[in-house]
Amino acid sequence: MAPTSTPQTPFGRVLTAMVTPFTADGALDLDGAQRLAAHLVDSGNDGLIVNGTTGESPTTSDAEKADLVRAVVEAVGARAHVVAGCSTNDTRHSVELARAAEQAGAHGLLTVTPYYSKPPQEGLYRHFKAIADATDSPVMLYDIPGRSGVPINTDTMIRLSEHPRIVANKDAKGDLGRASWAIAQTGLAWYSGDDMLNLPLLSVGAVGFVSVVGHVVAPELRAMLEAHLSGDTRKATEIHQQLLPVFTGMFRTQGVMTTKAALNLQGHPAGPLRPPLLELTAAETEQLKRDLAAGGVHL
Q1: Cα–Cα distances in Å, from 139 out to 160, 169, 220?
Q2: Enclosing H/E stretch for 243
């Protein structure tokens, strides 16, 4: 059974888009995934995204995706929302992944804008609706035009928000003005999908975060959120500014690469990456250490 939620926070408030641990030979490390999930929840996350891009979903098989959902739900499903990425640029395949994730025990689905194909807005609408129609699970849209090539326009968001199972949006559009209008007009639970904009998005109505840096600073993200909710904007701003080196350092190069490097440095399960991603260079690792230290992260 999923943890308690509300219409305002259907997937919790502090979620980390979890990396997928692999063994030294590149196989799926389910034991490591369970240990990492437990660590992240113990650190302050009340939700985890598995099989997202940060989880190297383009390189994992359908069977591996289902196995990972089952393992993470078994480890932390009573304490945190487990949301499974299921969307590709193939609507039919996405529906299959959504059904498999639900059968594996996921509490919700993350559906990213179809990438590379650059469909029109009607194509986006039909894609997301088909996924939402296919299961009984609540759905979080994922709007990231920098990677997908097309945004989900506000008018399309409004149409999608009328679907009873489309309840949230992960916003990586980087446009506070559009976010403000969409939050006001759709009523969707809004989650920041851009760590640098976590606090600014809270100020225009977001309810929480889907974070990458939550792998290493979840307690600080939780403290910033709680300060904002309590009206202590000065404290929230101080924490935001303290974390600026982390926000910057974790994205100097590809985010999965830096995240796995940070976790490996801390002794948490992560392991290697699957091609085309690759390990940080020695110079990049040293820069990451400096950035994390400047943000108060101990390695």
Answers
A1: 10, 8, 27
A2: none
pLDDT surpassing 70 at residue 210 = yes
Q: Which helix (H) or strand (E) holds 108?
A: strand 108-112
Give the global pTM: 0.96
Q: Which of 296, 286, 206, 212 is nearest to 254 (CA)?
A: 212
SS3 141: strand
For 153-196, the pLDDT digits (tens) are 999 999 999 999 999 999 999 999 999 999 999 999 999 999 99
Q: Are 209 and 45 within 8 A, CB to CB?
A: no
Catalytic residues: 142, 170
- Backbone phi, then psi, for 166, in 5-degree steps? -90, 105
The torsion angles phi and psi of 210, rounded to 5 degrees, stand at -115, 105
In 3D, which of 19, 29, 27 has the Cα closest to residue 54?
Answer: 19
From 212, 193, 192, select the one nearest 201 (Cα to Cα).
Answer: 192
Residue with tokens 């910033």: 224
Residue 64 backbone phi and psi in degrees, to 5: -65, -40
- Using only the alpha carbons of the chain, give its radius of gyration: 18
Please give the C-alpha separations between residue 174 and each of 74, 143, 145, 213, in angstroms, as whole numbers.
Answer: 35, 10, 9, 17
Q: What's the token pair of residue 79?
A: 């304490």
Instruction: Yes or no: say if 221 and 44 are a contact pair by the CB < 8 Å rule.
Output: yes
| pLDDT tens by residue, 264-285 | 999 999 999 999 999 999 999 9
Q: Identify which of 175, 183, 188, 221 has the alpha carbon closest to the alpha carbon of residue 47.
A: 221
Asked if 162 contacts 4 with a C-beta cutoff of 8 angstroms, the reply is: no
Half-sphere exposure of 40 (CA within 13 A, CB side): 36
Name beta bridge partners: 142: 112, 170
